[in-house]
Amino acid sequence: MSQPLARVDAFDKVMGAVQFGADRVPPGLAHGALAVATIGRGRVVRIDTSAAEAVPGVRLVLTPRDGGELASAGFVMAGGHGFQSLQPLTDDHVAYRGQPIALVVADTPHAAAEAAALVQAEYEAEPLSVDLDADGVEVLDQAAVIPAGFFPDVDVGDADAAFARSPVRVDSVFDCPPQHACPMELMAAVAEWNGDTLTVHEATQNANAVRFGLATQLGIDVERVRVLSPYAGGGFGNRNSLQAHTCLAAVAARRLGRPVKLVVPRSQMFHDASFRPASRHRVRLGATVDGRLQAAIHEVDQQTSRHDLFPANYVEMTSRLYGIPNFRGHQRLVRTDVQTPGYMRAPHEHPAAFAFECAIDELAYATGRDPVDLRLANDTGTDPVSGRPFSSRHLAACLRRGAERFGWANRTLEPGSMRLADGTLVGWGVAAGAYPGSAVPTVARLRADDDGTVSVQVGGHEMGQGIRTAIVETVVRDLGVAADSVRVDVGDTAAVPQHLTAGSWGTASALPAVHDALQELRRSLDLPPTGAVDLRAALAAIGRADIEVQAETRAPGQPPEAIDRLRRGAMAIAGPEFPTFTAFSFVAHFVEVRVEPTIHRIHVSRVVSVVDCGRVASPVTAASQVGGGVIWGIGACLREGSEVDPRYGGFLNADLAEYLIPVNADVPRIEVDFVDEPDPHLNALGVKGLGEVAMVGVAPAIANAVFHATGQRQRRLPIRLENVL
Amino acid sequence: MLTTRPFTYAAPTTIADAVALIDTGGPGTKFLAGGTTLYDLMKLGVETPAAVVDLGRIPELAIVDTTGDQLVIGAGARMCDVAEDPVLLHDYPALAESLSLAASQQLRTMATVGGNLLQRTRCAYFRAGAPFACNKRDPGSGCAAREGIDRVHAVLGVSDSCIATYAGDWAVALLAFDALVDVVGPGGERTLPVADLHREPGDTPQIEHTLAPNELIVRIRVPPTDTGRASTYLKIRDRESYAFALASAAVGLAVDGDVVRNARIALGGVATRPWRARAAEESLIDAPVTADTARRAGRIAFADARPGRHNGYKIELGARTVANALLIAAQRSVR
Fold first, then answer.
1. A117 touches chain B (CB under 8 A)
2. Is residue B287, in this structure, part of any structural domain at all?
3. Is residue B129 part of a domain?
4. What is the chain A residue with the closest CA to B327?
5. Does A422 contact B at CB distance below 8 Å?
6. pLDDT in tens, A254-305
């Protein structure tokens, strides 16, 4: 393999040839629009749809009065398929501002939107609590309310005693705001009935959940539902389960006998999909005078909704980041009046790393040790929680190589000690990150034709991360065929089962299945296990025009039932603890910030990121993913926060002008490097996850750089002008 | 709510026809220039015009002449074009910068320099509609921002009725240079200073400017000034591009030897309208521009500021922004 493969769908994307969910326009299409609640909590006591129904072109208005037709799909983290258990329009209850209370369907999108704005509701409002500190929230010990074994607290050694004994102690509190993923593609579904068979085109990371969830909600056989999601315009966890609008489109389409498209506008996306919940972290570190960690206590309060318990999973990563002999991790859930929060890129690992890695930097200063040296001194090859080895761990290599590339040796330790001639303060910061290695059962089907075409159908979703490119690259490397002779079909429930693609397991699950199918193909064609293949000749030799093979793969230690779970639409995630090892990806980020002399604007001027993701499956898309992750980290640290007005609930800055994601001008030079050592245990291809670990640790590296520049510790995100003025 | 209610549409080709259409159209008829604010607010349901009169087909409105003593800039000229005018770039950098730092290239390509003067506020409570009280959108309903998330709101020119920030940049720079606007109505043409164009909210925040509903801005004129060359527009915002100002300052200086003979300071992002800081200007006359005098001028500019719950930082930020802008302008005076 000489040249890394360019993104295989780049040309089609640039030419607009790729069909996203809402691009589908079947004949007779009708358009939906949602009316949403304007109170933060309470009840709809009356709803008047007469003005909406009078708008020309309106065909249908659904309200909670029609609720009998719909059931909850259940919460995805409690055995269901929905991003939350609450399905709007099933009753008169309002759980949060922005909750849909009516669906209008019309001949045009404009008529639908116009009519939706004319739906009049009267409410009985109740007091609401929307932030962690509000009166009226309910605080729960997670370990007591979520079944044992899932997202447990961590208790290794005696952390409290060891902390009390430690000569050097850090004790700090960190606050992370709610944030929204804001994928560029809006939420949208196109629902079409053909007799009693439903086809849904929708961008999702989890076509299985859409399919099985809809079958539950609509009370139909799952065999009668097909979901197609060939491309998603960004996922980031936002699309990792069934959202509430999809079944509304399906019900409307069934009622009208017409296909229905429902596109959820940006402001409503802030309320009709999950978000990264607010979290507060108290981190206590105890160390010897030379910085050897003796104890860590990481306590977290995380927001959830009234109706669901979105599990907190912060301490899983922080307990593995270093070889800390005594660790206590404790997580509480705080019920607030919001839609159920959920997974957003590096969902828990980003906030956890912000808290923990800033605290590590505080420890470095408390002990006078260089922050890179301190981290190297606390590295470990053994998972301190399970006592088993890591499948592979090259964090030290990430730190050393990053320090070398960044020029870390030229850093002076003292805050405020590096500045430019014009008085600009320069800060250099470092932070490490880790992300659990997981895998899911996957089915791959491979077909070779005597025209030289190789067609791959595999469980997985393309949301821009480049899974198609990685699959094509795998086939090309294995068979030696041309890239343009490989066809990839992902996200289609009619092909193979489509498990949730998330948690950075997409590539690490799909590629082993493709790999096994390739081996099966070779066996079926009487070919050796490696080496370039002449498919035409091989097919001719066995006298066939084509051949189709299938492979099923499971994560290490997963029982055969995992495949059954997959086929039943259930989740079957293994990791990061496997029977004989623990799997994590690792990263080290080095950041330079420049802080203006008087106004103190913070500019990120340079980033070096070195990643241990096992073998790099596709160099082009991998580098792009890391660059994107770093940009996410810049946004998460310096820009993004969803604003909550406690009087009203919901989110106030619900558009892309006021929810501040980074723009091109915010993005500095980002150097990306990979250790590129195959993981010997996780799968045959030696790949680990990449998409999320890329972001973990960016925020604390920036915050630590800001401290190095200014001498001010920033423990609340986002860090904005007023915080450093 | 994304909505576009039906409206009628006309596209006259002369100024006289445009004014006649708006005059006979009555209430609910709106001029449409670049559409970057009007269409946006129509989709949000905040603006609900019954009719729009599109000004985009009137060639006379787009005439720009920067070759004479005064700058003459047609109201229909595009922000992107005026931002690159060589005379503005060289002789009035504050004007050029105020345009090029606004919005995004895509928006500047649509938006006009006349329409931009009347850009409406970005107050989230104003834009979001129900359930938020907003005296500007719904007079008498109250102001949700005053006891709410007012981080980006104004500290100057505020009232009990409204603290919404004037969002534009261009009008701030024009104000610093005593620019004039020529407007045409059914009764003919009149001229008013940009300083008299915008209103403080007082008890009637829904009335944002002094134009009659049937008057049209046809051109902007900038009279000769000795403060143009040594000028700058410094815009401080939450990200490096594509954001509204948290604080901005348009500053122009005439420096004789070491001392200031003439100073212009106007503020954006901190006030309910483009804000001229005359006392700050006067503090610099006959003084050199140093870090101290610049900082003092900045403080004076905010002497009357009234902070809310989360926007108190704007007083210090604004003062430092003025000070930095003065230092940049002073450097330009010696080039």
1. yes
2. yes
3. no
4. A598
5. no
6. 999 999 999 999 999 999 999 999 999 999 999 999 999 999 999 999 999 9
Domain count, chain B: 2
Mean pLDDT of B124-136: 94
Do A96 and A214 lie in one domain? The reply is yes
> Chain B contacts of A645, Cβ < 8 Å?
144, 148-149
Contact at CB, A599 and B1, closer than 8 angstroms: no
Nearest to A720 among B45, B238, B324 (CB): B238
- Buried b / exposed e across A413-450, counting CB within 10 Å, b at 16+? eebbebeeeeebbbbbbbbbbbbbbbbbbbbbbbbbbe
Looking up residue A325, the CATH number of its domain turns out to be 3.30.365.10
Strand B259-268 to B245-256 pairing: antiparallel
Listed residues A498, A532, A567: the one ending a domain: A567
Q: What is the ipTM of this complex?
A: 0.95
- The position carrying tokens 């990263």 is A587
Q: Containing domain of residue A73, as a range?
A: 21-126+184-234+239-272
Which of these, A180, A185, A240, A187, lies nearest to A210 by C-alpha position?
A240
pLDDT category of residue A152 using cuts at 50, 70 and 90: confident
- Asked, as a colleague might, if the bond just before A718 is cis with ω within 30 of 0, I would say yes
A vs B, Cβ pairs < 8 A, gives: 91
**Which tens digits make up the pLDDT trace of B278-291?**
999 999 999 999 99
Over residues A654-682, the mean pLDDT reads 96
Is residue A664 less than 8 Å (CB to CB) from chain B? yes
Q: Cβ separation of A601 and B316 shorter than 8 Å?
A: no
The shortest C-alpha distance from B253 to chain A (Å) reads 21
Q: Give the residues across from A121 on adjacent strands.
A: A47
Q: Is the pLDDT of residue A149 over 90?
A: no
Query: CB–CB of B236 and A663 under 8 A?
Result: no
Residue of chain B whose Cα is closest to the Cα of A663:
B241
Domain range holding B290? 230-332
Distance CA A689, CA A574 (A): 13
CA–CA distances in Å: residue A660 to residues A182, A640, A720, B107: 10, 5, 11, 17
Residue A306, Cβ neighbours under 10 Å: how many?
A: 17
To which residue do tokens 């009137």 refer? Answer: B58
Selecting from B5, B124, B236 the residue whose C-beta is nearest the C-beta of A658 gives B124
**Mean pLDDT over the full length of chain B:** 95
Q: How many CA atoms lie within 13 A of B228 on its CB side?
A: 19
Sign of the C-alpha dihedral computed for residues B220, B226, B230 and B233 taken in this order: negative
A598 contacts in chain B (CB < 8 Å):
320, 323-324
* Partner residue opposite B320 with nearest CB, options A598, A652, A665: A598
A255 and A388 co-located in one domain:
no
Measured in degrees and rounded to the nearest 5, phi and psi for residue A490 equal -125, 160
Nearest C-alpha in A relative to B149 = A645
pLDDT over threshold 80, residue B5: no
Query: Catalytic residue positions of A?
Result: 692
Interface contact B3-A654, CB threshold 8 A: no
Same domain for A464 and A525? yes
CB contact under 8 A, A652 and B128: yes
Q: What is the pTM of this model?
A: 0.97
Task: Kindly list the residues from chain A whose CB atom is less than 8 angstroms away from the CB atom of residue B313.
Answer: 721-722, 725
B149's CB contacts (< 8 A; 6+ apart) are A643, A645, A652, B124, B310
pLDDT tens string B302-329? 999 999 999 999 999 999 999 999 999 9
Query: How many domains does chain A divide into?
Result: 3
Question: Which of B149, B242, B317 lies closest to A643 in CB terms?
Answer: B149
Domain shared by A344 and A401, yes or no: yes
Residue A381 identity? G
User: Is there a contact between B320 and A662 if contact means CB atoms under 8 Å apart?
Assistant: no
Q: State the greatest distance between any 2 C-alpha atoms of chain B, in Å, as a whole number.
A: 62
Beta partners for residue A519, in sequence order: none
